[in-house]
Design a protein that fits this description.
heterodimer; A: 354 residues; mainly alpha; 13 helices; 77% helix; 0% strand; globular; B: Rossmann fold; Rossmann fold; 2 domains; six-stranded mixed β-sheet; 24 helices
Chain lengths: 354, 549
């Protein structure tokens, strides 16, 4: 028994008693079950286990604090109507926004933030972290930290462009099909079925080996692969909107299809499309990473998180976590984007009224 | 059956609060309500009066985002519902208190048979075994005068008509023989002819089982038939309460009197102008959806400055005729003439000017206005589209139209439709059609989704606009009270055919065509004995299904 363990249990029990005293049901249940679980963990894992529980709780508390401050910061900064939406946002959304903000800063100011160039060999292969290199060196002796910063620019930028293109194509075609209907609808529908019936990875490998691997082709190929899903969603959502009386009124006024799509249908189907954007962005991200991993994505020496995982994979066998860092960067962004999308969905679905 | 008259429901100082804009706002301000066993209380008032909220509160339930305020007491048969735990409340609902919603079609699960949904509650509360419960359901169906009571339960909700579904729903509410049933506008969505069947069925069954009921509606004539006591509500406050007879004969409060007076609006009947070409002339029109014929040989004329009311039950082809005129459904035979020249059958072939001349106002303002577009743009678009106005001119025009429909431009210019009330939305719908500067407007059931006071306002507005701009209206409705107040000529439709047409005064004086007579006699009147008298005249048991295809 040392002071840490005594303090650990004393704190947990004390705080849960306080929660019980002040009738905070949820907080009490959470804290007290944590206390009970810690008993078992303390017996099984000893002090080390309790340390990891403490660190984990600290991390969660820290991110909650950061999210809270970031949210308050945005509330003060934003104009009135957006600030109101921000104030009611859950902490997860604040967290997501903060992470996205950090990634954006990293990507935009990469050359200033990164201590070395993304292709500069500055050390021996797999050198461990020292005062020059925060995260050590990769398989060629390049600074891991700098490459991760540059990777934010390359990987995220590419995924973002590809998703936007996929949405531009898919949503336009989908809403057009919903508005016009008939043969064109059928034709587009079947084309989409064909594209969707081919496994996406194999299809992209095929296209990339035909057209060659450069950034523009990569973006277009990914957009083509992901546009069909957007098409389907846009078409079905649009289909529900087209039957409304206001569309009939607009048609009877003599409005053209483009006006109908832009002014009448799109504003009413944006909520699910935005949600889908968040999801697709993550999938595209993973596909880019996957392609890079296979060597058909972003070409070396350009830094890219997907290929960084592959290149440093051997280190795993030595118990190093270096290859996991770019993977974690991908995972963190995915989680953050989905937090924000959840919140947007929540706002636009009218659930906020309840 | 012994008539036990003890107090069943005793609500004291009921306060209900709703959460909006991060604040709790009181929406029902301390209502007292006492209901005895076997008594039917009518709750009336316009939308937003808190009728449904009080109805739900009687089950100890509030909608999401609402809560029952401090100091309220809801006592049901000696049990205080505000402090009863959720689990106990749940077993109370369905078993001892039942709820019949406005739209039976939306309340039944379309994936299960009627009888399976009927037996769900009795089985769950272990009141009856499945077979017993089915037997009981059939008996209730028979009492509610549903056709084929032994088989109808094995159909799915979409396989029976709206009126039958509403009765099946009432039967379902009766399944556990509850002490209290809450009827929330059960007949509002139904035709007059169907409404009668449902009303009489509900009244009989409530009578037979000595069930107490809260009957929520905005239709005075209906509540007069159903209720023993009437309570009038306005914006969450009680206006007055009295038994039906004295309430009808001698209302005390000004607000109640204004409700009673609504049906007085009547416009001057305009005679048909001689020797002019009709503005719109429908000539021998046949139409079909796919292979199903819906219209057969429909002909009528509409002159400038006149209102032609087209009446009939749902499915009679009123709206389809409108679709033929607008060109949404090209007729298979016959033609539509505009000032003597035939219009192209498909709206896509019509010129911008032809489209401008004929505008439409829809029944459901909710779906007729794009919720994501500002009022200024909804009204401004037709003005910009047809007249090419823009900038300050367009803004002036929109302000002018908003003034016309009696909405303050500075207040409503930048709003979105969901922020408006039902009546205001309908006014915006009218404004949108006016912005096109038409000569002819089709009004498709424009008042049927509105409260009587609001509806009357809309009718007066339409009348005013007609006089100012010499507009012609085609007024589609199933409500004969509306026809009485606004029509110049009447066209009666049934099964896609015109059965009778003529000037209003002729149409409303006997002799009528048999179908017109049925429609006319089915309009509820304020006399509390009207339903009983009518049913006696028609012979209750024989007629209920005769006009229901």
């Amino acid at each position: 028994m040392n002071y840490f363990i005594i303090g650990f249990y004393a704190l947990l029990i004390g705080v849960s008693s306080l929660a019980a005293f002040y009738q905070k049901r949820t907080a009490f249940l959470l804290l007290f079950s944590l206390t009970l679980v810690s008993f078992i963990m303390g017996i099984v894992g000893g002090e080390a286990m309790l340390w990891s529980v403490t660190i984990l709780a600290g991390l969660i508390a820290f991110s909650a604090g950061v999210s809270f401050s970031f949210r308050e910061f945005l509330v003060i900064l934003l104009p009135a109507d957006l600030a109101k939406a921000m104030r009611t946002a859950p902490l997860t959304a604040g967290f997501g926004l903060f992470v996205i903000f950090t990634y954006a800063i990293a990507g935009i100011f990469a050359p200033i933030i990164a201590p070395y160039g993304e292709a500069d060999v500055i050390s021996s292969a797999f050198a461990p972290a020292d005062e020059n290199m925060l995260l050590g060196a990769d398989q060629l002796g390049r600074d891991m930290f700098s490459r991760i910063i540059y990777g934010a620019r390359n990987t995220v930028g590419l995924a973002l462009l590809a998703t936007i293109l996929a949405f531009a194509m898919g949503a336009t075609a989908g809403l057009y099909a919903a508005t016009v209907g008939g043969k064109l609808d059928q034709l587009l529908g079947r084309v989409v079925d064909v594209i969707m019936s081919i496994p996406s990875l194999i299809f992209s490998l095929l296209l990339l080996s035909i057209f060659g691997t450069n950034t523009v082709t990569l973006i277009i190929v990914i957009a083509i692969i992901y546009a069909p899903r957007v098409f389907r969603l846009a078409r079905s959502v649009g289909g529900n909107v087209v039957v409304m009386d206001y569309i009939e009124a607009a048609k009877l006024r003599g409005e053209g299809n483009w006006y109908l799509i832009r002014k009448e249908i799109l504003p009413n189907s944006s909520a699910p499309l935005i949600a889908e954007f968040g999801l697709e962005f993550c999938f595209v991200f993973l596909l880019v990473a996957g392609l890079s991993f296979l060597g058909l994505g972003i070409q070396p020496p350009t830094a890219d998180w997907g290929s960084m995982v592959r290149e440093n994979a051997t280190l795993i066998s030595f118990g190093e976590i270096t290859p996991l860092i770019p993977a974690a960067a991908i995972a963190l962004l995915t989680v953050a984007v989905n937090f924000v999308v959840d919140w947007m969905l929540f706002m636009s679905s009218g659930l906020k009224e309840q | 059956m012994s008539q036990d008259k003890t107090i069943l429901l005793n609500i004291k100082n009921l306060i209900i609060e709703g959460y909006s804009d991060e604040h709790w706002i009181e929406i029902v301000h301390g209502i007292d309500l006492t209901l005895h066993r076997g008594e039917v209380m009518g709750l009336i008032g316009e939308s937003g009066a808190g009728k449904s909220t009080i109805g739900l509160a009687a089950m100890g339930f509030t909608k999401d985002g609402c809560r029952i305020g401090e100091g309220s007491s809801i006592e049901f048969d000696g049990m205080e519902l505000t402090t009863t735990p959720q689990a106990d409340l749940q077993s109370l609902r369905g078993a001892r208190i039942a709820y019949v919603a406005q739209s039976a079609a939306a309340s039944f699960n379309p994936a299960h048979k009627l009888i399976d949904q009927h037996t769900e509650a009795p089985l769950q509360y272990r009141i009856q075994k499945r077979l017993e419960s089915q037997e009981d359901a059939m008996e209730l169906y028979e009492r509610l005068r549903l056709p084929n009571p032994r088989e109808i339960g094995f159909r799915y909700p979409h396989q029976v008509s709206g009126g039958q579904l509403q009765r099946a729903m009432t039967a379902m509410a009766m399944a556990c023989r509850p002490d209290l049933i809450i009827f929330d506008e059960p007949t509002t969505a139904l035709d007059v002819t169907t409404q009668i069947e449902v009303l009489s069925a509900i009244r009989d069954i409530v009578d037979q089982f000595n069930t107490a009921a809260l009957y929520i509606t905005h239709d005075l004539a209906v509540v007069a038939q159903m209720a023993d006591v009437i309570k009038v509500l306005l914006k969450g406050d009680e206006v007055e309460e009295a038994d039906t007879k004295s309430m009808l004969e001698n209302p005390q409060d000004d607000y109640t009197k204004s409700l009673w007076a609504v049906r007085d609006f009547k416009k001057e009947q305009v005679p048909r102008p001689a020797d002019t070409i009709p503005l719109i002339s429908v000539k021998n029109v046949d139409a079909a959806y796919g292979d199903t014929p819906v219209l057969e040989d429909v002909s009528f004329d509409i002159f400038s400055g006149m209102t032609v009311a087209v009446v009939g039950e749902s499915g009679s082809g009123k709206s389809t005729t409108a679709r033929c005129i607008t060109g949404l459904l090209p007729p298979t035979k016959g033609e539509v003439l505009f000032q003597g020249t035939p219009l192209p059958p498909d709206y896509r072939d019509r010129t911008k000017d032809q489209l401008r001349q004929a505008q439409m106002i829809y029944q459901m303002a909710d779906t007729a206005l794009n919720p994501k577009v500002k009022i200024s743009e909804i009204i401004g678009r037709p003005a910009a589209f047809y007249s090419g106005l823009h900038g300050p001119e367009l803004k002036n025009r929109v302000d002018e139209i908003l003034d016309l429909i009696e909405l303050d431009p500075s207040k409503y210019y930048n709003r979105y439709p969901p922020e408006l009330s039902g009546g205001q939305k309908q006014r915006i719908g009218i404004a949108r059609s006016l912005a096109a500067e038409p000569t002819f407007i089709i009004c498709d059931e424009v008042t049927s989704a509105l409260d009587q006071l609001v509806a009357e306002g809309i009718l007066r507005l339409l009348d005013k606009l007609q006089k100012e701009m010499n507009l012609a209206y085609m007024f589609i409705t199933h409500d004969l009270a509306t026809v009485r107040s606004i029509a110049d000529e009447v066209v009666v439709m049934q099964y896609g055919k015109v059965v009778e047409q003529g000037p209003k005064d002729v149409m409303f004086t006997p002799p009528h065509h048999a179908y017109t007579d049925l429609l006319l006699s089915s309009v509820p009147e304020m006399d509390p004995d009207w339903l009983s008298t009518l049913l006696e005249e028609r012979g209750v048991d024989s007629n209920t299904e005769t006009h229901n295809p």
